[in-house]
Amino acid sequence: MSSKNSNWTIFMRGLVKENPIFVMLLGMCPTLGVTTSALNGLGMGLATLFVLILSNTAISLIKTLIPDQVRIPAYIVVIASFVTMVDLLMAAYWQPMHEKLGLFIPLIVVNCIILGRAEAFAAKSSTLQAVIDGLSMGIGFTWALALLGGTRELLGSGAIFDYPLVGEDASTMLLFIMPPGAFLALGYLALIINKLRGVK
Amino acid sequence: MAIQRPKSNLINMVLALVLVTVVSSACLGYIFELTKDRIAQAKEAKKLRAIVAVTVDGYDNDLVAGRLEVLADGLKKALEFYPATKDSELISTAIKSYSTQGFSGDIVVMVGLKPDGSIHRIKVVEQRETPGLGTKVESKRFLRQFVGKSLASFNFKVKKDGGDVDAITAATISTRAFSLAVQTALAQYQKRAQIAANQGKKDE
Question: Minimal Cα–Cα distance from B45 to chain A, Å?
Answer without folding.
Answer: 11
